[in-house]
Amino acid sequence: MTTKKFCIIGLGYFGLNLAKILTQLGAEVLAIDKDLAKVEEISPYVTVAVQLDATEKSALLSQGLNDFDAVIVAIGEGFESSITTTAILQEIGVKVIYNRIVSQLHQRLLSLMGITNLLVPEAEAADHLARQLITPAMIDSFKISDKHSVFVVQVPDKLVGKSIIDSKIRTDYNLNVVTIKKGKLVSIKTRDSIFAAPTIGVPLPTYIFEAEDILVLFGTEKDFENFTSE
Fold it and tell me: Are residues 195 and 100 in the same domain?
């Protein structure tokens, strides 16, 4: 498999963490920022870290960005630098550009420039928090369509000691058990802790729920709310 190459411009909280995650997933990452301190902070975690002003065409040309699978503009302060950087990337022929949006005006300007890969991490975080506030039992969730989502929830007490088939999750709540992760979340609910928990794979209908199980369910939000509200 060919190793993918990504460039991230702007090493604020979002850009820095994105760079680390992409590297952990096996990609080659070029991290760019004009702040030397941020470049030095990310340097141990990525393939190459470079200090430069991304609003200067000659500086970006020197990095050979046409060879990358995508360039992510994650500049978070204002949007003038983001717009200028994006315009230069288009001019030098970068084919796949992602932009972090910082305002509605920023989004409109990028759309007028023909940028369709628009990122709103704050909105995603707000959506995730809202879902947790409405459904406290939920640990995590993500949509895969307008109607359906995948939900992560600690096994309810009512299911402990029952098999999947006897629990009637599918027949009574119209939810499918995708998999089960082992290990109670004893502290803060974080995606990292969920990811690190062992997974049993596709469970058999005869699987007996245990008190420390973490369920990964598929269904609609309405069905999930019915399941967790009882």
Answer: no
- Asked if 98 and 180 sit in the same domain, the reply is no
Question: Model's pTM, two decimal places?
Answer: 0.66
User: Which CATH number belongs to the domain containing residue 42 in this structure?
Assistant: 3.40.50.720
Q: Is residue 159 located within the same domain as residue 110? A: no
- As a three-state string, the secondary structure of the chain is CCCCEEEEECCCHHHHHHHHHHHHCCCEEEEEECCHHHHHHHHHHCCEEEECCCCCHHHHHCCCHHHCCEEEECCCCCCHHHHHHHHHHHHCCCCCEEEECCCHHHHHHHHHCCCCEEECHHHHHHHHHHHHHHCCCEEEEEECCCCEEEEEEECCHHHCCCEHHHHCHHHHHCCEEEEEEECCCCCCCCHHHHHHCCECCCCCCCCECCCCEEEEEEEEHHHHHHHHHC
Per-residue pLDDT tens over the stretch 55-75: 999 999 999 999 999 999 999
| Structural domain range at position 111 | 5-121
